[in-house]
TrEMBL record, chain A:
Topology in membrane: Peripheral membrane protein
Protein function: Involved in beta-(1-->2)glucan export. Transmembrane domains (TMD) form a pore in the inner membrane and the ATP-binding domain (NBD) is responsible for energy generation.
Molecular function (Gene Ontology), one example: ATP binding
Record has Nucleotide-binding as a keyword: yes
Lineage, uppermost ranks: Bacteria, Pseudomonadati, Pseudomonadota, Alphaproteobacteria, Hyphomicrobiales
Start and end residues of each ABC transporter domain: 16-253, 251-507
Subcellular location: Cell membrane
InterPro entries per the UniProt record, alphabetical: AAA+_ATPase (IPR003593), ABC_carbohydrate_import_ATPase (IPR050107), ABC_transporter-like_ATP-bd (IPR003439), ABC_transporter-like_CS (IPR017871), P-loop_NTPase (IPR027417)
Predominant location category: membrane
Superkingdom of source: Bacteria
A Gene Ontology term for the protein's cellular component: plasma membrane
Stated name of the protein: Sugar ABC transporter ATP-binding protein
CDD domains linked to this entry: ABC_Carb_Monos_I, ABC_Carb_Monos_II
Automatic annotation (TrEMBL), chain B:
Compartments, record wording: Cell membrane
Lineage, highest ranks first: Bacteria, Pseudomonadati, Pseudomonadota, Alphaproteobacteria, Hyphomicrobiales
Pfam family, one: BPD_transp_2
Topology in membrane: Multi-pass membrane protein
Keywords: Cell inner membrane, Cell membrane, Membrane, Transmembrane, Transmembrane helix, Transport
Protein name: ABC transporter permease
Segments passing through the bilayer: 23-45, 57-76, 102-121, 128-148, 168-190, 220-240, 276-295, 301-318
Automatic annotation (TrEMBL), chain D:
Subcellular location: Cell membrane
Membrane topology: Multi-pass membrane protein
Entry-linked Pfam families: BPD_transp_2
Membrane spanning stretches: 16-34, 46-65, 71-90, 95-115, 157-179, 212-231, 294-312
This protein's name: ABC transporter permease
Protein's organism: Bradyrhizobium frederickii
Length: 507, 325, 300, 316
């Protein structure tokens, strides 16, 4: 489907055009004859399901992957992009989905990695200049931080801001952003949007990958949809409805209202957290979760939601308080919590959720070993069957259960993390940003799944930075502020305004 | 439906698992070395020599098999050799003092296991990287053994006890039976028990393993204790085979054991490898030394040849792994 | 009285050096002096022994009894001792340089030669022989193996089948012997450069139910036991105990301005079934030779 | 928006304690109980004795920062030391000897780097292999014998002084300064952090991690060459087993110094303190004449204690 440009555009020649790009990985045709063009001063949204090939296309575009077939044109002239250096010369800069920061270098060194200002002695770095330059870049994106802070001390959101600063500093003509807001709070997201508006005005072409429908319509000038490595269509936001877009992406109708079968009367008490205080900065947390409920846990980034989740699961130690699960007090390591029926779907799937080099099957059964093989004897075929079942149930896009999990797309990796707890038969699911980086189809599937789980007598505690999601699916929610519970919202009170009001400092 | 299109891109399922393929390549390499040696030396292919090679490989294998589990968790145990020395000296003394081989064997195993457990405690409770913790342990053990032995040699053990290392049963050396037994146990443990699976998971990503509900600290303790226990077993074999022990016997055992694990295809980054691979690794190392002895290769060349073999083996392993992925 | 004598030996693991140390201690006790033992933590480590020399020069003991871990590499160390004007006696391996009050040692070459001759005589001057060498590059090994080879030259009927390294290690010697037995159906004699390797070779022979005459070197307790039981043909005695005694004695005598003997090369003894009794006593019960004995033992 | 940095104290300060506490305690302890420990002559001994290890531990720090390891360093040092001896013996020139040692060291370092970077062999395995090769070559070139009779100019390097300071100490100080400058003030140093911390970041920045990696290992080889010269000078001869096992001492010193084996987190000054701790411990124990078996165990205990202290701090 490499038909010519789909729609009329302001400028006659695109800044950069890719024609007939194909890219194959062992067992996966990641890109199949994809054509794609960006024009100066536009925000080009790239949409698609998890594993559709968005990140791959961008990696081809910036020279990180070599394409198996296809041509590149810069301002109408044929060029070769075979390395990141080639791409940089053409003014292409990328904010990757995975961070490309060096932990023990400071912010300034990270921003200018490979482009350090030269000092007087050959080979040395002009320290004063690099700090000043970094400060200037950070100021343009409104990020107020000391550029000599080492990156290992930064939170996820702060790291994302450094990534953005790094891309901006290259004075790029073409800027690719792969899910830049996935880790950002509302405040930082606003800063980013303002920045995008400014760059647009300067004539920078922006390619923007996102799974958030709101952003697509708020920012996009043009939309290209990929599905299974193929380009499906190119449209303008004004010409489509979200439902139509979703259909293009997943090839079928998806219900985006996340229907919940709300429990009329909540079941018995499953989890009771009393006065939980932990050295990680949370204090006096009181939470109750009943069977059949989905309870939200919201607040700003850094308000301590993840810390609560980790402390309940036993991943971090606690200083005082009590956690009562299913009538019994628990305290100890995660293996105890897991055995009693608590599941944690952690914030960072790559570093905390998966063994990236192992197979999908290995990852799916790892939490359920004791349940699947009560005798203690492991049976590969049984594991494989369980995995195949989960792959079907969760619609995980993988060539087989034997595929290395690290080669799946981000969203599919997330499904594997959820899948392993389904296999374990947990009773309480603690989701820490379960839909981060997950496509719309998968999102509704995951919510349907959670709904089914709780309907069957399980319960969920869900952390999400997307307040809409909380409002749609939760029975009620706790709002956190600075390590404490700032308030509780019932089903009727659960609105975005209320969440924000309780979560802000001047509530 | 998207499912159908995704089904279409699945490659045909290969019949053999990745590990099986790697073991197969290794067997091939071992056979190749055998073929070369058979051409170069008349005596190589004799039954006697083959049993001989197996028996020599068994000592390295006992140490290396426990070590394999440690390496599977992305750890390392540099203290195995020193552990063998201490355990052998203690077990030997007990046999001399009490006259009871059974008691001696038990003390040797217990000594090895306790040292392993201490390693495990350093790695889990004190959170010292295993490479460093076991290096420290190596010197502590050496100090203990030197002090305990004070330059003496233990020798002369009951004939029954000596059968373990030097006896035959139905024409096969007893260590070869032990080798087969432990090869079986090790493979079964690693591949067919959930503990084995958990060990692989820990090696692949310890943080994720912990958050998946695996009792990481306990499994690590187990793994280091098993490694120590196997060193204890090796010390018994050593003692009964050589009918003697002294303080420095461990020195020349550690690096060959590590080399056997690596040649056997276990990755130092954890999560990848098999006990059977380690067995073939031990076999390849032994074959090379056996060949050099049979061909009377000068001593000067022996480290050089061993070094090249280690690099070649691992490089070929990576080559074949990439292709079959 | 009350002098401190620093005694340097090569390692803590070889029984031979233990006998040297016990000899030194025993002599020092008799003469009312004290010993300090300096042993590298890594066996035979050159840099470590050099560091220990530097440290001991600061500490200034009354005298030093010195076994170089390597007879050539340690010369700068000896020169440092000389510069610090600490009297030093050389024992065991003859240092290639530096000034010593006295040398007390055995001659590795004749030790190798005599034991090998004894083996060949027992075999009637013929038969198939293998040599198991010690650590490549160590002086003791070079000289012993040279002695072995020269003895073999005197017996044209004997044939050298192989000369392979066992690195003074028991296990390695055992495995080398096992391997050599595969390619040689008839082995009559084994010349091992130390007792541990000789005993390793005997284990290999026993394991294969084969017989050969084996000799070792050092006269360790283990070797004496093996000679007693008829498994080992002979062991060349290096007499470490006497070396320790006499080295210490010379050092103390010079401090007390008594005459010393500048060179004592102990004659090799080939310990066999016929003469092992004097060696079959625990180290602690052995008595040091007197100064008069020393004169007879091998003064040139 | 003002983002509070989570921990505002500078990075190295956080790590000083483990190794620094150990070193200070050791010096205080031996100063109190070991006669002569605090004398200038003895302290100078400790420093001179630590120079060879310093020269190996500094590049080892860089290599470990790239999530690598060089097990061949001791064996390569042995080989370069022999080369220095053989060449200076043949040509009567110290400089030619040094040149030969450097050449061989760099060659081995480059091979290590090539095996690790281009062939992708894990560093532990690659350098375990080259360890064997260097050891074998040492035996072959020397035929297992010591090399003696080398010119005095070589030996003088170890015993000479420069404005009253022994030349080896001067060399070690210069080396430290050079490594410090290299790691913290040059682009190359920045890239070393990235090699361990995030190799992808380098690739996206248009730099070749492979070439950088080879350079790091080659530096290790070159330093083994220079240390080989010192070793030869120290022994006034070349010997085929002189440096065996030194690589583990170097690794231990790096670890004691607080460099972690992950994500490019390295600290050069810590390494220096680590080397000194090992040196002070050995020297002090020699002076108080504890039984040798205690000395053997002591280094093990030092390593464990220092890392335990670090662990305590990082958890606090
Ligand atoms: N290095 C690789 N090796 C093998 N397969 C890969 C590799 N990189 C990506 N793939 C596969 O290519 C396909 C496209 O992946 P890609 O990361 O481009 O998806 P995506 O659209 O960015 O998805 P997401 O929204 O989840 O980030 C997926 O099936 C993925 O598993
Ligand atoms: N008070 C604080 N000031 C600055 N940074 C903080 C603060 N508290 C936490 N952080 C850091 O911010 C990052 C995100 O915070 P954290 O995970 O604690 O919050 P959260 O409520 O779970 O938010 P989210 O899950 O949305 O990231 C973490 O890396 C944490 O170290
Ligand atoms: Mg993606
Ligand atoms: Mg969080």
């Amino acid at each position: 489907m490499s038909d010519a440009l789909p729609i009329e555009v302001s400028s006659p020649t695109p800044l950069l055009e890719l024609r007939g790009i194909s890219k194959e990985f062992p067992g996966v045709k990641a890109l199949d004859d994809v054509s794609f063009a960006v024009y100066p001063g536009e925000v080009h949204m790239l949409l698609g399901e998890n594993g559709a090939g968005k990140s791959s296309l961008m990696k081809v575009l910036c020279g990180a992957y070599g394409a198996d077939a296809g041509e590149f044109f810069y301002k109408g002239e044929k060029v070769a992009i075979t390395s990141t250096a080639d791409a940089q010369k053409l003014g292409i800069a990328v904010i990757f989905q995975e961070f490309s920061l060096v932990p023990y270098l400071d912010i300034a060194q990270n921003i200018f990695l490979g482009r350090e200002p030269k000092g007087r002695i050959p080979g040395t770095i002009d320290r004063r200049k690099i700090l000043a330059d970094a400060k200037r870049v950070l100021d343009t994106i409104g990020f107020d931080i000391d550029p000599s802070t080492t990156v290992d001390k930064l939170g996820v959101a702060q790291q994302q801001m450094v990534e953005i600063a790094k891309a901006i500093s290259q004075d790029a003509r073409i800027l690719v952003m792969d899910e830049p807001t996935a880790a950002l709070s509302d405040r930082e997201t606003e800063l980013l949007f303002a920045l995008i508006a400014r760059l647009k005005a300067d004539g920078v072409a922006i390619v923007y990958i996102s799974h958030r429908m709101a952003e697509v319509f708020a920012l996009g000038d043009r939309i290209t949809v990929l599905r299974d490595g193929r380009r499906i269509d190119g449209v303008r936001p004004a010409d489509v409805t979200p439902d139509q877009l979703v259909r293009m992406m997943v090839g079928r109708n998806v219900d985006m209202t996340y229907p919940r079968h709300f429990a009329d009367k909540p079941g018995e008490l499953l989890l009771e957290v009393k006065g939980l205080t932990a050295p990680t900065g949370i204090s006096d947390i009181n939470i109750e979760v009943r069977r059949g409920e989905i309870v939200g846990l919201c607040g700003l980034v850094g308000s301590g939601r993840s810390e609560v989740a980790r402390a309940i699961f036993g991943a971090d130690p606690m200083t005082s308080g009590e956690i009562i699960f299913d009538g019994k007090s628990i305290s100890g390591e995660p293996d105890l919590a897991a055995r009693r029926g608590i599941a944690l779907i952690p914030e960072s799937r790559k570093s905390e959720g998966l063994a990236l080099l192992r197979s999908v099957s290995d990852n799916l059964v790892v939490s359920a070993l004791r349940k699947l093989f009560p005798s203690g004897l492991f049976d590969q075929r049984r594991a494989q069957r369980t995995a195949d079942g989960l792959i079907r149930q969760l619609r995980i896009a993988t060539p087989s259960a034997r595929q290395t999990v690290g080669l799946l797309s981000g969203g599919n990796q997330q499904k594997v993390v959820i899948g392993k707890w389904l296999a374990a038969g947990s009773k309480l699911f603690i989701f820490d940003e379960p839909t981060r980086g997950i496509d719309i189809g998968a999102k509704s599937e995951i919510f349907a799944l959670i709904d089914r789980l709780v309907a069957d007598g399980a319960a969920a505690l869900m952390i999400s930075s997307e307040q809409i999601e909380i409002c749609h699916v939760c029975d009620r929610a706790y709002v956190m502020r600075e390590g404490r519970i700032a308030g509780h919202l019932t089903r009727n009170e659960l609105t975005e305004e209320n969440i924000v009001r309780l979560g802000m400092h001047h509530a | 439906m998207t499912d159908i299109s995704k089904e279409a891109i699945m490659p045909p399922r290969s019949f053999l698992s990745q590990d099986a393929i790697q073991v197969f390549y290794r067997l091939l390499a071992a056979l190749l070395i055998c073929a070369v040696l058979a051409v170069l030396s008349d005596s190589f292919l004799s039954l006697g020599n083959i049993l001989n090679v197996l028996r020599q490989a068994s000592l390295t294998f006992f140490i290396a098999s426990g070590l394999t589990l440690v390496v599977l968790t992305a750890g390392l145990d540099l203290s195995v050799g020193a552990n063998v020395a201490l355990s052998a000296c203690i077990a030997g003394t007990v046999i001399h003092k009490t006259g009871s081989p059974a008691l001696g064997i038990l003390t040797g195993l217990a000594c090895g296991g306790i040292v392993g457990l201490l390693n495990g405690i350093m790695v889990t409770a004190l959170r010292i990287p295993s490479f460093i913790a076991t290096y420290g342990m190596l010197w502590v053990l050496n100090g203990l053994t030197y002090w305990y032995m004070a330059g003496e040699t233990l020798h002369g053990f009951p004939a029954g006890f000596r059968q373990i290392g030097s006896g035959y049963l139905f024409g096969l050396p007893i260590p070869v039976y032990l080798l087969l037994v432990f090869l079986g146990i090790g493979t079964f443990f690693a591949q067919r028990t959930i503990w084995g699976q958990e060990i692989y998971a820990i090696g692949a990503n310890p943080v994720a393993a912990r958050l998946s509900g695996i009792p990481v600290a306990r499994r690590l303790l187990l793994v280091y204790a098993v490694s120590g226990l196997m060193a204890g077993l090796a010390s018994i074999i050593f003692l009964s085979r050589l009918n003697s022990a002294e303080a420095d016997i461990g020195e020349s055992l550690t690096l060959p054991a590590i080399a056997a694990v690596l040649i056997g295809g276990t990755s130092l980054f954890g999560g990848v490898g098999t006990v059977f691979g380690t067995f073939i690794g031990a076999l390849i190392l032994t074959l090379v030394l056996n060949g050099m002895n049979l061909l009377s290769v000068s001593a000067n060349w022996q480290p050089l040849v061993t070094g090249i073999i280690v690099i070649l083996a691992v490089w070929l392993d990576m080559k074949t792994r990439r292709r079959t992925q | 009285d009350g002098e401190t004598i620093a005694v340097f030996t090569k390692n803590q693991t070889n029984p031979f050096f233990q006998t040297v140390r016990v000899g030194a201690d025993s002599m020092a006790k008799t003469l009312n002096a004290k010993t300090l033992q300096y042993i590298p933590t890594k066996p035979d480590s050159i840099p470590e022994q050099l560091s220990q020399i530097e440290d001991v020069v600061v500490k200034k003991p009354s005298a030093i009894v010195f076994t170089p871990v390597d007879y050539k590499a340690m010369v700068p160390g000896v020169e440092k001792i000389n510069e610090a004007k600490i009297p030093v006696v050389n024992i065991t391996d003859r240092s290639a340089g530096g000034k010593f009050l006295s040398f007390v040692g055995a001659d590795d070459y004749s030790l190798g030669l005599e034991t090998a001759r004894f083996l060949l005589k027992t075999l009637g001057g013929k038969g198939n022989i293998v040599i198991i060498e010690g650590v490549k590059g160590s002086l003791t090994n070079v000289d012993r193996v040279r002695g072995f080879n020269d003895a073999l030259k005197e017996a044209p009927g004997a044939k050298l089948l192989a000369s392979q390294p066992g690195n003074y290690q028991r296990l390695q010697a055992l495995q080398v012997m096992e391997n050599l037995m595969q390619s040689n159906s008839q082995i009559d004699g084994v010349l091992a450069a130390n007792d541990a390797m000789a005993v390793g070779a005997i284990e290999a022979l026993d394991g294969a139910n084969r017989k050969a005459k084996v000799i070792g070197i050092n006269g360790t307790k283990e070797a004496i036991d093996a000679i007693k039981s008829g498994k080992l043909l002979a062991s060349g005695d290096y007499n470490g105990f006497a070396q320790g005694c006499l080295g210490t004695m010379m050092a103390i005598r010079s401090l007390r301005n008594q005459p010393v003997i500048s060179e004592i090369v102990l004659k090799p003894t080939v310990i066999t079934k016929d003469n092992y009794q004097p060696f079959d006593v625990p180290l602690e019960q052995r008595t040091c030779p007197t100064f008069e004995d020393a004169g007879k033992l091998g003064a040139k | 928006m003002r983002e509070a940095a989570v921990a505002s104290e500078p990075n190295p300060l956080q790590r000083i304690p483990g190794v620094a506490i150990v070193l200070v305690l050791l010096i205080a302890l031996f100063g109190a109980i070991a006669p002569g420990f605090l004398s200038v002559a003895n302290l100078s001994n400790v420093l001179v004795q630590s120079t060879i290890l310093t020269m190996l531990a500094l590049p080892m720090t860089l290599i470990i920062m790239t999530e690598g390891l060089d097990l061949s360093m001791g064996a390569v040092l042995t080989l370069t030391s022999l080369c220095v001896a053989i060449v200076s013996l043949a040509t009567k020139s110290m400089l030619l000897g040094l040149g030969a040692g450097l050449l061989v060291g760099v060659a081995f370092g480059t091979v290590n780097g090539w095996l690790v970077a281009i062939l992708g062999i894990p560093p532990f395995v690659a350098t375990l292999g080259t360890l064997g090769m260097a050891q074998g070559l040492s035996l072959i070139v020397s035929d297992g014998q010591s090399v003696v009779g080398i010119p005095h100019s070589v030996r003088d390097i170890y015993s000479a002084t420069l404005v009253g300071i022994p030349v080896p100490i001067v060399m070690a100080l210069v080396t430290y300064a050079a490594f410090h400058g290299l790691l913290y003030h040059t682009r190359f140093g920045t890239y070393i952090f990235a090699l361990g911390g995030n190799r992808e970041a380098l690739r996206y920045a248009g730099l070749s991690p492979n070439r950088l990696l080879i350079a790091v290992y080659a530096i290790g080889g070159a330093m083994a060459g220079i240390a080989g010269l010192l070793m030869t000078a120290r022994m006034n001869s070349g010997h085929p087993t002189a440096g065996l096992g030194l690589e583990f001492d170097a690794i231990a010193a790096v670890a004691v110094g607080g460099t972690s084996f992950e994500r490019g987190n390295g600290w050069l000054l810590g390494t220096l303190l680590g080397v000194l701790s090992v040196g002070v411990l050995r020297n002090g124990l020699n002076l108080i004449s504890l039984p040798s078996s205690v000395q053997v165990a002591s280094v093990g205990v030092l390593v464990i204690v220092a890392l335990f202290l670090d662990g305590l701090r990082s958890r606090a």
